[in-house]
Write a structure and sequence with these properties.
7% strand; homodimer; Rossmann fold; 613 residues; 5 strands; Amino acid/polyamine transporter I; 2 domains; alpha/beta; Amino acid permease (chains A, B)
Chain lengths: 613, 613
Amino acid sequence: MFKKFKEILIGKPLKSSADDSHLLNKMQALAMLSSDALSSVAYGPEQIILVLMTIGATAIWYSIPIAAVILLLLFALIMSYTQVIHAYPSGGGAYLVSTENLGTIPGLISGGSLLVDYMLTVAVSTASGADAITSAIPELYNYNLEIAIVLALILMFMNLRGLRESASFLMIPVYTFIISTFILLGVGIFRILSGSLPYQAPAHIGTSIAGVSLILILKAFSTGSSSLTGVEAISNAVPFFKRPKEHNAALTLVMMGSILAFFFAGVVFFAYWMGIVPQNNVTVIAQMAKGLLGSGPLGQLMFFIFQFSTALILAVAANTGYSAFPVLAFNMAKNKYMPHMFTARGDRLSYSNGIISLAAGAIVLLLIFKGETERLIPLYAIGVFTPFTLAQVGMVIHWKKRLGKQFIWHSIPNILGALISFAVVMILLIFRTAEIWPFFIVLPVLIFAFIRVHHHYVNVAEQLRLREGHAEHKFDGNTVIVLVGNVTNVDLGAINYARSIGEYVIALHVSTKENTRKEQEIESEFEAAFPDLHLTVIRTNYRDIIAPAVRYISLASKNAKKRNYTTTVIIPNFIPSKPWENMFHNQTGLRLRVALNSHEDIILASYNYHLKK
Amino acid sequence: MFKKFKEILIGKPLKSSADDSHLLNKMQALAMLSSDALSSVAYGPEQIILVLMTIGATAIWYSIPIAAVILLLLFALIMSYTQVIHAYPSGGGAYLVSTENLGTIPGLISGGSLLVDYMLTVAVSTASGADAITSAIPELYNYNLEIAIVLALILMFMNLRGLRESASFLMIPVYTFIISTFILLGVGIFRILSGSLPYQAPAHIGTSIAGVSLILILKAFSTGSSSLTGVEAISNAVPFFKRPKEHNAALTLVMMGSILAFFFAGVVFFAYWMGIVPQNNVTVIAQMAKGLLGSGPLGQLMFFIFQFSTALILAVAANTGYSAFPVLAFNMAKNKYMPHMFTARGDRLSYSNGIISLAAGAIVLLLIFKGETERLIPLYAIGVFTPFTLAQVGMVIHWKKRLGKQFIWHSIPNILGALISFAVVMILLIFRTAEIWPFFIVLPVLIFAFIRVHHHYVNVAEQLRLREGHAEHKFDGNTVIVLVGNVTNVDLGAINYARSIGEYVIALHVSTKENTRKEQEIESEFEAAFPDLHLTVIRTNYRDIIAPAVRYISLASKNAKKRNYTTTVIIPNFIPSKPWENMFHNQTGLRLRVALNSHEDIILASYNYHLKK
């Protein structure tokens, strides 16, 4: 029944070989991999304005020069990641690039940051998606958190179904968003040109505003740079592209960069032009859309379409986390830095454990931060720009190794990217400590855990390896101990089996002395049933039979070893015809198994007698 | 560590033989067994007044004649249970008396009612205890429910420690309550006689009050009869008395009945005389105590002592449930109507499972009814008077069987008790349906469950019994299948063992075809390590290795059977040096065990290789 239910939720199991056809063309790849970056325009510009608003609406014009710097950073990152694609066609990603060029610890820092970051991707995107929905439907305003959690769960199930289905399914919302944003910005440009969109900025560009400090500008810049999260996604996913993989991936990356630049610039500009001020219940981008599209019936319809495509692309953005996290976890698990279970693929070929862990992490984050985007953004930014910086530095080293002295020319985009990314990290570190401190607790804990896990696996592999010149050992026989409770068919079967494998069979009964008559009864029944086998009875003053049984068995095992015999303990067990009936019977067998598991050289065997009704 | 913690909570394990010295003398027995009945005066009279108050304070004088009828019922019950003590010296109780004289189903009705009822005893007593505490300390008023739950848990741990310790421990609060109530009522009588207690009854006895109907009187009577809950406790516990058991038990019962009658009559009378009207935050008995003792410093001290001794005796009353429930569950489990686990005694010789189940049930009831006594009382009353009625009818049958025609004289108290108890049941059934309906859902479900459990045990015993002329079977050999993953020390050990027990050893490897190179590597490693053993490789298109392994194993088992061989499957397993490290390794072994458990004639053995570090 569980199996059926699982099939309905995530689909029928797929063969391992079914994997090859799951490759993405450019259109699908853009849908799958650019949503994280593109959807950032739904919250990135708003974050800039929110910081500036602490001075007042007149300070908003600063968003224009700040946006220009962010666009420069975007350009450097796109150039830089184009190089990563060519340098690491098997799927680069900050973890791999950092590990290979900078060493284990920087690699683990990148990996750990990204794992946390993908959880934040899911949390931020689903929370913003919920905001987009409630901006259009004010009645839902109090259910933001619940909507975000449901979105995260829906995405989890979709991803458990497998990658390709998701890709084709996701193309619709992404392209709806791209097209409708183009239309929206087009309408805006047309209205400005035709003079029908009044200029309402609270202050002109260049006006000097009292209270604006460099710190404020840097704060606004660092949070606004959260619009650039997700540009690395394509470079991690090169193996999923159709051939020629690298070429297609690079083209997709440039395409995505151009669209993002246009959207980001457009939103910041119109927010400034229209004098939009952040509100509690309605996002900046929703206010902008409402203003540009007007309140006519067509305008209203288009506004709803825009809001829902925004919500949908945010959901797809969350999905980027779902495709990236499990792959990263797989890579780290393959290098023995994460538990082995992250390498296992589920019925639908997806890395189920990674997907489920991600969803759980994101939901925990949503609950801790009550689904409030602005509290999640600083953490998100530090989580992104830390591995960005490390990956760019890694690329510089990479070029130096490969090209020698000539490396400097190839490295320019990387050096630029590294510097700006590092600047963002430092700004966050210095000016937003109050928001990002949890990152500096979680990350060291993660890295410590990675190292411990690695140590464990290496240690186990070492101990398990067959040594040169290991020898098979020939035993002379087998001592078999059968535990007897009452004398039943189960014991009959178990003793028959014991005699088939053992040279020396011991039937063992533990009496709790509470009922001497009962003990004598069992002894005489046993003698009648098995006249040629002696029943060894041990007595205990307590009710627990486990401890005395274990004591006797270890003694017997020691004796067996002296004679070069192996020791087998048989626990006779009956299996009720209905599984739930097990609860009516005591679990002594199970407890004995647990107790004996810690004893070396004792083999535990269960003899199961199946009841028919 | 768990063991240490458990020892601190419930004490060191006791030997089974330590049981005999746990017998009770009369003083201890009165403490242990009368608290339920005596403590009822803390809520019983209030319940009568609460019902009458629906008409108005003037109706309160009716509590006097109602109390008279309840005292008559008490007298009949005490007489009747004295007879039960002599007829069933091994511990009567409604379950036993009903089963023996009326048959299985009436017995199960009694047993089921009482099991529920003991949970209600705990719930009502702890809730009333919490009320007594908050009547004295108004600051705690909002924590009634929490206080009640904590009381139930404290009692649970005390009972897990064992019976005797509880008895001596409980004597102090019970006797403090008895003495302080005597003092309280004595003060009241003295003040009336000395004329210093003004008569403030809202209406004289006999005043005709508009709106008082027979229905109201019957309702008040039926809830007031909850004061009689617990009078059966002594008759269930005869075996725990010191010799002469029956004599001592009967004496204790009469003693208890007299004290209860005096206390109940006193509280009803003073509540009437002083014109006490129920309040939300202060119990009737607390108002009475406050009024009688006055507001001087000595009076206030005495008031506090009285309230806390009330709270304590209510806690002890809850304890009656803890001593009765496990014994009843044990008796029903011995008759195979409840799961076997209720017959098992814990480290401290108490029936741990019964004690824990009772606490859990009581806490669930407290949570459902939010700890409100007046909502629990009607259920409590129906749960008590149903088995009362059945037990009394059973006694009539008992006398008829033993004495023939003469039975009528012996039966008079039983017939009287049966009739009044039955009247209470009918009144509750007709006039308090809205409150008691859950009882008529829970009881049939319980009885159905008892019958199913019984059927299951009888059925299993039947199937397990060795038939006359059963024969031992001699096998010709043993096929051993060893599951091989990677080729490691674990496999070496497992194969050595397999060869010691098996005539025919199969090494089986399931390949998931995801990595052909890996498969070839394993094959050649295996050949190098075990040149004289062939590695059977089966391939699967899916990632799950369980299903193909099980298919192969069942086939091998069929072949083995044809040759009169047994089949053993060995699952090589390594045990990490630290238990938590298990989570880093996949649980294929465990899953295979579960899958193979349903296959007959396959013996599962675990070969454990212990890692040293």
